[in-house]
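LOG
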Amino acid sequence: MTMDNVRRLYERFETDKELRKKLYMAEGKDAREAALREAGLFFTDAEFDAMIDPLHVKCQTVEEAERFFEFRNWWDMLRRS
């Protein structure tokens, strides 16, 4: 399920520096999608947006919520580039 890929990317957000670098270096949406496909994490912008609330609700501490918002803001910055 591709929406689950949003959760999987969120879980790898802090630890997979190589994937983050590939996504940062990707020039445009097509290159970013190719990097996600290569990592087995492809999802659409609509699927990302649909997962925001379920991921946010799972935050149990302020630290988890801050980490979540960092992830969300990071992805929003990437998809606007």
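LOG (cont.) second protein
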Amino acid sequence: MNYDKIKNEIKNFVEERDWEQFHSPKNLSMALSVEASELVEIFQWQTQDEYQKNEEKVVNVVKDEVADIFYYVVRMCQKMNIDLENALFEKMKKNKQKYPADKVKGKST
């Protein structure tokens, strides 16, 4: 993945449409929430059987929603000067301390 290329694509997309004025952290977080809800909606009330019968179609729809979610995560990071890679690794360190493998392995609680 070329993260710089992705950030540049998003930056150009926003600039060409003069959308910077609308991309406050509040608005971006709400848009991110909407996109995440659209992802959830794909699976709402769906049985495992239904999913398996329509897996290819579902994957294509999910792909679009995941891309929308990623767009808003990257955009939020751009607006708030967050280094996404560093943020991820810092959070993973916290997660490893909070959920030590020897205590939680195989458990969902």
